[in-house]
Amino acid sequence: MFELAGTAQSGGSILGLVGPFVLMFVVFYFLLIRPQQKKTKTRNTMLKALKKGDKVVTIGGLHGTIVEISDDIAVLKVNDVTKLTFDRGSISHSVASDAETKE
Known about the structure:
Mean pLDDT: 86
Strand order of the largest sheet: 4-3-2-1-5
Structural class: alpha+beta
Number of helices: 2
Number of strands: 5
Largest sheet: 5 strands, antiparallel
């Protein structure tokens, strides 16, 4: 009879120790992991949808228009003369799609 009571207490204490960690993981998942996954998915969709003529901003803050684009490289026209080559992943966002979402 004493063994059953001891076993129940040790089982309860293990659940009491693991429970807060499980709860903490669930909170981290919904507050940190899930929103970051959604943001990454949205960014990847935007990068795949880029096409010639789109106005974009790079991660460094450079504004330009896409002149050429391939799977991994984008050539931006910054002014009438200057063309710069960037990695496709260095594009932060598209200016045209931001203007459309505000309307």
